Automatic annotation (TrEMBL):
Subunit structure: Homodimer.
Designated name of the protein: UDP-glucose 4-epimerase
Top EC class for this record: isomerase
Any Pfam family hit: Epimerase
UniProt xrefs under InterPro entries: Epimerase_deHydtase (IPR001509), NAD(P)-bd_dom_sf (IPR036291), UDP_G4E (IPR005886)
The species this protein was found in: Cytobacillus oceanisediminis
Keyword Electron transport set for record: no
UniProt xrefs under Gene3D superfamilies: NAD(P)-binding Rossmann-like Domain, UDP-galactose 4-epimerase, domain 1
The family this protein is said to belong to: Belongs to the NAD(P)-dependent epimerase/dehydratase family.
Domain NAD-dependent epimerase/dehydratase: 3-252
Length: 330
């Protein structure tokens, strides 16, 4: 029996595929390579290029493989882009997931781990955010992920399937031993943007707003190392394999770090000068997002190891330094 990973050529997906293979799981990846990279997929994984919005494509993969569980990453995942093009998010995320669940029903696959997001909370009233906090997404990205969580709930209830939804805070870093890392076509994430500036690949770093009601006026986020995130996915799979009921978990380092603090850490780690400017706020950005990950720690026995922002930036820096232009273009 094998594990299916949708979006397994993407940044987070490729780290989970790498871990699954190292743990001895037979792994099948589907990805349409709109944002993912073929070179990011572990060579021992079976790879099918295609779009999960195609029922024929999914049926052909699921007919040829014996899938026991699915990690569902395939989605568009940028807050800013979703504000400008919400319908694309409904199409790719909601329609893609609906199509996937139909195919899973057809092939009687009943375990799924879903890649959700802290963006489902929107501007939370109190921090750190617990899983039962009000769900008020401030962007179409968060809204589509929440719609999928609700769909999973009713799907699981009707079909007897079980799912775990993992709401990540800010994934960052790269596999410390190298080979895979973050490479987006139009990079919008803070840490890679800073490191590209440190490499001289962009002129400057813009701080999106320094007038937020936070300690230094810049947005506060909770950064989590992608290797710790991968470990949590494996634990979620084992939880389902052991018969665990459908559940939702936050995944974060439980520490709030401001944009300015990330920039200062990156300046220290890289020991390079880069220009920093203050820009207007980016729409859809909540002032603060910090997780309470107590539930994942107690129920999944998750113990994140690389929780300091310095370690996260160091591992991201070794990826960026060794791959200044990302994955080789084939
Ligand atoms: N940010 C910034 N400048 C950039 C990119 C991001 O100031 O060039 C800020 C952004 O406004 C947010 C934080 O950095 O407060 C993290 O943004 P990112 O896009 O990395 O992740 P998100 O929190 O949107 O998932």
């Amino acid at each position: 029996m094998a594990i299916l990973v949708t979006g397994g050529a993407g940044y987070i997906g490729s780290h989970i595929v790498d871990l699954l293979i190292r743990k001895g799981y037979e792994t099948v990846v589907v990805d349409h390579l709109a944002a993912g990279h073929r070179q990011a997929v572990h060579p021992k994984a079976a790879f099918y290029e295609g779009d999960i919005r195609s029922q024929d494509f999914l049926n052909s993969v699921l007919s040829g493989e014996r899938i026991e569980a699915v990690f569902h990453f395939a989605a568009s995942s940028l807050v800013g882009e979703s504000m400008k093009n919400p319908l694309h998010y409904y199409d790719n995320n909601v329609l893609g997931s609906l199509n996937l669940l139909k195919a899973l029903d057809t092939h009687k696959v009943k375990q799924l781990v879903f890649s959700s997001t802290a963006a489902v909370y929107g501007e939370a009233k109190s921090q750190p955010i617990q899983e039962d906090a009000p769900l008020k997404p401030a962007s179409p990205y968060g809204e589509t992920k929440l719609a999928i969580e609700r769909m999973l709930h009713w799907w699981a209830q009707a079909s007897g399937a079980r799912f775990v939804s993992l709401r990540y805070f800010n994934a960052a870093g790269a596999k410390a031993s190298g080979g895979i890392g973050e490479d987006h076509q139009n990079e919008t994430h803070l840490i890679p943007i800073i490191l590209q500036a440190a490499l001289g690949k962009r002129e400057s770093v813009s701080i999106f707003g320094d007038d937020y009601p936070t300690k230094d006026g810049t947005c506060i986020r909770d950064y989590i190392h992608v290797e710790d995130l991968a470990e949590a996915h494996l634990l979620a799979l084992r939880y389902l394999e052991a018969g665990g009921k459908s559940n939702v978990f936050n995944l974060g380092g439980s520490k709030g770090i401001s944009v300015k603090e990330v920039i200062e850490t990156a300046a220290e780690v890289t020991n390079r000068w880069f220009k920093v400017t203050i820009a207007p706020r980016r729409s859809g950005d909540p002032a603060e997002l910090v997780a309470s990950s107590e539930k994942a720690r107690s129920l999944l026995n998750w113990q994140p190891k690389k929780t300091s922002i310095r370690q996260i930036v160091e591992d991201a820096w070794s990826w960026h330094r060794s791959h200044p232009d990302g994955y080789p273009k084939s």
